[in-house]
Amino acid sequence: MLRLSFLFVCLALLSIAVLNVHAYADKQSLVLAESDSSAAPNAFKSIERSSVKTIPTLDQSLWYSHGVGYGASGTFLKDPTWFCILSQLQPNVVKSLENQSLTQIQLNLENNPVIAAYVATRHVIKQGASILEPQNARSLLKLEWDLFVSANAPADLAQARIAHGKPLTLVIQNILRSIAVSTLFNEVKNAPSPLDWLEIFGRAVKIANANKNKLTSTSQCASLVTVPGDKVSDRKLAAQYLGKNGGLVIDVKAAYAKVPQINAFIDSLSAQYGINVVGVGSFLFDQLVGLKPSVTPVHFFHSVFGFLHKKDSVPKGGVVMFNAGSLFKLPKTTIDTALLTRLSKEQAAGGYRFGYYVQEPAASCQSMANLINFVKVNPALAQMGLAWGNVDGQCDAAVSGNGLGCQEGLFTFESKFWHAKNAVVSAVSTVKNWFTSSKTNAAPKVAAAPAQPQAPAKPLPPTIF
């Protein structure tokens, strides 16, 4: 009966998924296309309050650009040059962002190659290097791909997809883990392949270089200097941003993916484009066992309490990553020192290396300033640093929140579960100790036996020399 019920739930969810595939007109289809389309008047009212606010820089503590910089969406769209580049290369994306809230705009631009080019080039410009020669920069900004590798041809870069996936998609994919059902969903099926992504990224950089400070308004897209497209050189330029001085972190969204498939994909990136994959992360830890030696396995959790509950599933010395907002003593955005003490204890026992992320659409500038200060003041508890999806040293003044975002519900559940578990363990231990103590005290004392008289010692025999 239990198996039948489980099967019924799976079929119900699958039915919803199929309906969702047909009903949902995908908003993130990333097709490289030429267009001089401009946004409708007042279509981006939600970003009017977006502005760059300065926060402390992470510098060497910046691990990688989470979501390839989608936290910068508001200021990115208000930049005339970059808005017009997005309009030219991906007019359908611009159309999908119209009349959306700032949060929805940010989520729709997660993994987008144009905003990735926006944050990556700023990192290069800051070092005084040419954005057309990123390999000459001292260091490059590491980027992240949410990846659905091809189940049938994992080494084929044209068949993989770079997408996060909607919550329903990810839930169903995890239930039907051995079947690549997620590829049926539009937000995955119509997402760019790594080849498409590299091409759009490289082309965006070239156009940005040809239009330095030439546009002063987002209404001037018709004046944008165009650059002829060349797939080979565009992809090669993009790959240089992911080379030895930088790198790529892969977040495996495909629950069906096996380690050999992930390794085959990494080999193709390296062989064809010299892309340096520095890390692979997953919430499913069997996807991290047996990765290539050059790749760091990253064990993802939603919160610090998720880690504390499942810490034994992480190997000694392993890399652990969870939402840094879960370290706050909510509702305030000050760090909970009791949690830091507990993390220090776990690190001493397991040698874990901690890294952190946040949900950028829900991370205020004050929250980020506090978290950045924590990372820089406590390097021993932040060996991997913080993944920040914006330009280093910048945040969007229009964003509010503690960084947990959609994970706050999970954080609340994991926190209550962990505390309840500890309370039960403590209670059981107390009862056990009381019972043992009571049993010892109640046991009757046994009188000592009277001493027995000793027999007289026998004389020793004479010694013969």
Q: What's the helix and strand layout?
A:
Layout (H helix, E strand, L loop, with lengths): L1 H22 L28 E3 L18 H6 L1 H10 L1 H7 L4 H7 L4 H14 L16 E6 L12 E2 L4 H9 L10 H4 L4 H17 L20 H10 L7 E5 L6 H15 L3 E6 L13 E5 L3 H7 L8 E5 L13 H14 L2 E5 L7 H13 L7 E2 L7 E3 L11 H35 L23
Helix pairs in contact: 1-7, 3-4, 3-9, 6-9, 9-10, 12-15
Comma- or semicolon-separated keywords:
465 residues, alpha/beta, two-stranded antiparallel ribbon, 15 helices, 10 strands, 41% helix, disordered C terminus
Describe the structure.
The protein has 15 helices and 10 strands. It has one domain. The longest helix is centred in the last third of the chain and has 35 residues, at 408-442. The strands form 2 sheets. An 8-stranded mixed β-sheet has the order 3-2-4-5-6-7-8-9, with helices on one face. A two-stranded antiparallel ribbon has the order 1-10. The model is unreliable at 1-31, 33-37 and 457-465 (pLDDT under 50). It has helices spanning 2-23, 73-78, 80-89, 91-97, 102-108, 113-126, 167-175, 186-189, 194-210, 231-240, 259-273, 304-310, 337-350, 365-377, 408-442; strands spanning 52-54, 143-148, 161-162, 248-252, 277-282, 296-300, 319-323, 353-357, 385-386, 394-396. Helix 12 (304-310) links the parallel strand 6 and strand 7. It is an alpha/beta fold. The relative contact order is 0.13.
Concise account of the structure shown:
The protein is of the alpha/beta class. It is built from 15 helices and ten strands.
Number of strands: 10
Average of per-residue pLDDT values: 87
* Net shape: globular
Q: Structural class, from secondary structure content?
A: alpha/beta
What is the share of helical residues?
40-55%
Radius of gyration, taken over Cα atoms and rounded to an integer in Å: 29 Å
Report the order of strands and helices: HEHHHHHEEHHHHEHEEHEHEHEEH
